[in-house]
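name: query_chain
kind: protein
chains: 1
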Amino acid sequence: MRNLTATICLTIALLIPFQLLAETYTCSHELSRFDRAGEVETLIFERVGNYFLEKTFQLKDEIMSDTPSHLILYRYGVSSVSIVLINKNTKEFGSTYYEMEESKKNPPTPNVYGKCIVTD
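structure:
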């Protein structure tokens, strides 16, 4: 009976597409780049089907690329785009936000850089 149960569980697990499995990246970065030394911001990206929900600000990020080593997410608005890069091997992440007003800044707003842990 145990072998039958194990076989059924394994079969079901193999039939579920990998991208439908739960996957959460909890990513943090220190804010000294933004003149807020000593402060840390944490962003949580949770896979929900074929997109990621950034839970901290309740934003939906589309998947641009998902490979064994990298995850690239994007979000766009009427006149802006946001990109999140996650290196699955090194657990590093980077993020940038771009809009026309940002183009006028010299120097531009710094990019986000930090580390992630993977849960689920």
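note: The CA atoms of residues 32 and 38 lie 7 Å apart.
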